[in-house]
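Inputs:
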Amino acid sequence: MSIFRVSGSARLAGWAAALFAVGFSAECAAAESRSWVVGWFTLATYSQEGDCSAGINPSIYEVYRTVLQNMGKTPKEIETIFSDIGNGGPPATQELFINRGRIDGKPVNIYDNPMSAPDPKFREVDGKYAFGFNLDGKADTGYEGPESHERGVDNQYYRALGCNQNHRAFPPDRPTHAIYIWNGARDSSPAWIITVKGENLDQDGEVTVLFDRALKHATLDATGNVVADATFRIDPSPRSHNELKGRIKDSILYIDDGDLHLLGDPFNYVKLQLANTHARFKLLPGGKLEGILGGYMPWMNLYFSYSSHGYVAEVNESINYHGVYHALRRLADAYPDPKTGQNTAISVAYRVEAVRAFTLPAEPIKSADAR
Amino acid sequence: MIPINNIARRRVLRGMFGGAAVSVGLPFLDCFLNNNGAALANGQEMPVCFGTWFQGLGFSQGFWEPKTLGANYEFGPHLKALAPYRDKINIFTGMKVFLDGHPLQVHRPGPQAAFQGGIPTGAEPPSIDQLIADVIGTRARYRSIEVSCHGSAASFSRRSAGSINPSETSPVALYTRIFGPDFRDPNAAEFTPDPEVMVRRSVLSVITDERNALSTTLGAADRARMDEYFTSLRELEQQLELQLQKPAPLAACTVPNKPDEITTGTVIDDALQTNKLFSGLLAHALACGQTNVINVEFGGTASDLRKPGNPQTFHIYSHEEAIDPQLGYQPTVAWFQQQCVDGFATTLKALDSIREGDGTLLDRVLLYYSTDHGVARVHGLDNMPMMTAGRAGNRLKTGMHLQANADTVTRVGLTLQQAYGVPVSAWGSESNRTSKPFTELLA
Amino acid sequence: MLTRFTGNRLVGGVALAAGVALAAMSSISVAYAAEQAAASGVKDVAPAMRRISSDQYTNIVAAVFGPTIKVGGRFEPDIREGGLFAVGASKVSVSATGIEQYHALARSVAAQVVDDRRRDTLIPCRPASTKAADDMCARQFLAKTGRLLYRRPLTNAELEARVAAAGASATKLGNFYAGLQASLTAMLVSPQFLFRHVALEADPAHPGGMRMDGYTKAAQLSFFLWDSAPDIELLNAAENGDLHTRKGLEKQVDRLLASRKLETGVRALFEDMLRFDEFSTLAKDTAIYPKFTIQAVADAREQTLRTIVDHLLVRRGDYRDLYTTRHTFLTPTLGTIYAVPVADDPLSANGTADAWTPYEFAANDPRGVGIISQVGFLALHSHPGRSSPTLRGKALREVVLCQRVPDPPGDVNFTLVQNTSDKVHRTARERLGAHATEPMCSGCHKLTDPMGYALESFDSDGAFRSTENGAKIDTTGVLDGIAFADAPGLGRAVHDNPQTVSCLVDRVYAYGAGRPIAKAEREQTQALAKDFAKDGYRLPDLLRHVATSDAFYRVAP
């Protein structure tokens, strides 16, 4: 894990500098500022028939069946075990699957020790299209952007996991896994706020794009979407404050580089951490912001967002977490560890949908006496 | 989408009284007129009963909802099995559970909101069946009976966090509990009037005794209003008097045959068979006045029902299975859902096949159907399927499709509590609290 | 004792034995007197008995037994007469279903009063044995509680009947408290509690004439100002005869006006006058107005009530400024509809989340035009899927100016008005303009629409807009000859309209008296309006004038 790790003090210094910059630019330059709250943040998929030429990955019970076969169980024993599981089963049965790793011949927890069993080799998305950005500058490695028609789009996360059933969807549908991960995060974690500052946001030009975390979660409207025009106080902590350069052209907001670091919730998105951040957000009439955010993400962060859920979620999501680890590790495409040469980051792309919001600076909590 | 723009206003049901006083119509007037087949010629009402029926993982969106509002609706294609009971079923679309920023504890907020009026936050208020049992269940042998068709003793029925009513999982055990050696034929049993009701009745005479004195001091218009008050009071006294008499014989009460031992568990065929036996036993238990409140859990929350020989559950299919682009839904999931609908129809059939007077047992029972998710695939809490089946002694209108605009599911529960006479004007917590019953069903 | 009506308009001696009266004192019902008066050719009727409202029931239970007693249930619906439920209360009775509900409610309240946690504080004595009757203790409790619930002392016969009922019940159930509970239940179902009776007595100031007795005056006063029954101090003033003296009456009126309970009373007055019961059935098509959640409905109602209480009581503001004030209160939910920043401010003084923030709109902001530019008024008087200049104009005329707008004929074709996606008639003004060319419709629309157009800058959910279907909205309008360009202009026109003031005075008077204003009382209300103007249109002063006026307690107008 080597990318953009900055020491605490350096971060704080950066924060102070950023504060100064904001204060300064607010007085002199930024004539206009608009904010949005992120309403949807989901894996950007573009699943089409035939884009997994080797087929869809097996369901979790097919995986477990193989695990039991490899342990030497007879078909009859396997049926008994499955019947037990179907009826709630004794914990010992579950442990067969949880502890399917082997170290020195002894069973170990596969989620904690993903290298203790061989790579189950997920099937990969080998179709033509994927959302994302050409992060490495090479036009001949990667997909074609389905809307931008950019060549060399790097999205190895999608390549790695996009042949699992619940990671598949064609827009405007969103993949199941991403929906329920986001639903959980959205309703329980502080909201993510995007603020754009510039001379005139209705015209083309350079802008500053802030990514922040609010002090409270987003609320929903009567249709179940994040409500527009709500007010958020911004978390003053530097851990989730980002200031990136951007540009607006023909009502599209672009970000072409920069680091991004937003805390999430411990269960679903530990944190959103991107290097070489790219964005292509449409600024729609009526105030919505919609588009793709991409960059390189430490793939271990991604793995933890799966494996921390453990066995029950592995079963319920029907995706082999052990396979997730190996696929991410194998297909990671940036920031090699200087010692081992293993890439520590993987190219990703997310679909972002946001509605207008108001922001206010954080205020100290009022005491009873203050009223 | 048809907007709800014809919200029923309160209507004056009765006209001018004596040219001066106006009595404004109230809900469930009909049940006192006893024109419903649930009351007998001598004026004694049959007990009104309540039940819940729960299934996890809801229905396929777009395939269960009726296309028209109000009466004479047609069920969506996946609910066709319920068509024979349509006129006794109210179906609600556009209902929602609000999370208020609390974490989505998947599968739990749905049933908790339907049963207890709020999402899990640590508070464990009594479940709706127990609130209603406080009104209709106290004099029966069992305050309520809980069954589960999938082998688990889980239940949503509770008085508090620490007092959950566990489900019976074996039909044979339920048979023994109700119709075993301790069973007493309700028609042969001796009747002892409830001393509390006697007291309730007798203290009202304090008021009636004042009638003459009061009336002589009033003008004509006020006298007419007082007359109406005392007519109403007399009806209340008569109701209480009826409760002090030996109840009408439960003519439909018969002791069923003892069921055979069967395999129970999560295999769908076992669950269907268990449900069928339970439904028959519960129908007899209601017909024999052994309880007035039942709770049926067909499949649990995050349903663990499955096909034989396959450990992959209904729940896992709901997350994993792709939507068939031709069909527009998840085919295996829809298959499971329709097994559940068949199960619900089986329960309704068991209640509807017991004849009582001009009607059936289902006319004095109401089952409250709920589930855990609107769109199970994504743990969605929008458009939660809700139904009521049965006429509850005509305490509310039936055969209606009501569409809410993303209102909390607790509106249905509040409506039912008010229909059963629970003294409550608002129910639920946080955004799932409501004081808006479906007045169009009550009025 | 014989009494006789001889007021200047009530002629012809009507003699009655007042001793038959149920209420203590030598009282007869005013309604009976009125009937006699009617028989002698006088048309105006005096106040009849009034059924207490659900809010009054709740307020009384809270005042007598404490706010922790839960009061829930479906009350009998009220009816509105002359624009007010307070007047309709003189017409309603109790239906069979209603009494079942009152009975269930009474049992629930009584059970809470005697339960283990409360009995020692709410019952002033301990029985000799909890398992048997104890008449002395029961009498003590029932006499004290009965006086508060019936708003007068119980007669000996009434009290003894209730003590006997409690005793018999306690013996039957083997429980003193169960007996008390039964007797209290009957008290709460009794028409003496559920209806406000009017008791008369001879008026020494007008020999041979009648007046309300002290207890009836006390109730008239407390229901008017507190929306609740008299407290002990007020009952004592009635008992002492203080309320029959100007000084004694003024002292009590001032005490009631200074109490925090005045806010409850003022809220009840405006909820009734502004028809806020309609909030209980207010809903929008959320596909069009996704921000209009149940929470938004609740907040919109509370916003207007808060504005009223703040402006009229806290600031002692000019009533007319209620239609122009830029001050209000917002919640984060309302903030999304107004599209202005309102944060959840972390903690209130008592440590709970306080959703309300004071808010002041800029001068000439159309959203800051008093209560008629608030989400509550705008959304109540709109259709579920579109705004309505007609409904808003009608509400302004009927609710704010006390005028009557005829209902539309039954056979009107509304297709043109309802089609909000009409490519030709893009705004409501254009659609209504086309519709109102039909002579059958134009008469009424002329009454309502020209003032409603000024509020077209607000959508059905109350959100501000400057265009509809891409067309710029024309907000010019006219009210009774005064032309204006926009909502702030309408606010000023309402502010300056003399009927705005006379309407309030009439409503306040009718609300307190529980009957429509009789012709003979016009002079009285005009005088009140004059005093109101002289005092700078301060509501508390108007309430004081009404509550201390002789006419307010007069037997017949």
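Confidence is low (pLDDT under 50) at residues 1-28, 365-371 of chain A. Flag for discussion at group meeting.
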